[in-house]
Design goal:
Layout (H helix, E strand, L loop, with lengths): L1 E2 L10 E10 L11 E7 L2 E4 L10 E9 L4 E8 L7 E8 L8 E7 L5 E12 L23 E11 L9 E7 L2 E4 L8 E12 L4 E8 L5 E9 L2
Antiparallel strand pairs: 1-9, 2-5, 2-9, 3-4, 3-6, 6-7, 8-9, 10-13, 11-12, 11-14, 14-15
Length: 229
């Protein structure tokens, strides 16, 4: 599934970025311990799940997208959602991260002081070649290849989570090694996300859908499986 024709990402490449971990982060000014990584590349913005270790968090979350901008921005934020409360940030050229290797990138705080490092890995994904025009009829015993198809999943809402008790629910989607996650919702009675997620699925794939509680160490509140057919 991965291609290594070139060693570093170029504009137009489809890549999978895995945010592995961070280490030696400073403490949150708000006193909150949970931390997540926010990723931005051009107009594409997403975030990892919340890790409970504020100093050496581990995520190992995957994100798939097209390289539309030469630079990526990563920000380590605490669950306070205060824009000023972040553990460190970095901006780096995608060309500086070699494919298939775990790379550590220096983080700096708002004063430019070194504040730990984030470790990530980038892999280039193979793009399905366009079909060639063919004349004639396919013989009945000739296999027809099933291809990966783009899928847009619209996550709307969920009811009666956690028995009506307070929680911070969010949705996690897993297809193979790819993971997507929604924002955290503060309404515990009826959670509303109304978010779209773009994925690529093969007809033989299954998608695991999890609803987790960010307020209780990412406890699973509910789950289900969707077929790629």
């Amino acid at each position: 599934f991965f291609s290594s024709a070139s060693s570093m990402a170029e504009l137009g490449d489809k890549v999978c970025v895995r945010i592995l971990r961070a280490h030696d982060l400073p403490a949150s000014t708000s006193g909150l311990g949970d931390v997540f990584a926010q990723l931005q590349l051009g107009d594409f913005t997403t975030r990892t799940r919340t890790a409970n270790d504020p100093v050496n968090p581990v995520w190992e979350d995957d994100f798939t997208f097209d390289v539309t901008d030469p630079y990526m921005v990563l920000v380590m934020r605490h669950e306070s959602w205060d824009p000023k409360d972040y553990a460190g940030a970095c901006k780096f050229a995608m060309r500086d991260i070699p494919f298939g290797e775990a790379s550590a990138v220096q983080l700096r705080d708002s004063q430019g002081i070194a504040s730990g490092k984030v470790v990530l890995k980038v892999d280039k994904l193979q793009v399905q070649a366009p079909e060639r025009e063919m004349s004639g009829v396919i013989a009945p015993d000739e296999p027809v290849a099933q291809e990966f198809q783009p899928v847009v999943l619209h996550v709307i809402d969920a009811d009666d989570l956690n028995g009506g008790l307070p929680c911070k629910p969010y949705v996690v989607l897993h297809v193979g090694d790819i993971m997507k996650r929604s924002s955290v919702c503060s309404n515990h009675g009826r959670a509303v996300w109304d978010e779209d997620f773009e994925l690529t699925m093969h007809p033989s794939d299954s998608m695991q859908v999890l609803v987790k509680d960010g307020a209780r160490g990412d406890t699973v509140l509910g789950s289900g499986v969707l077929s790629g057919k």
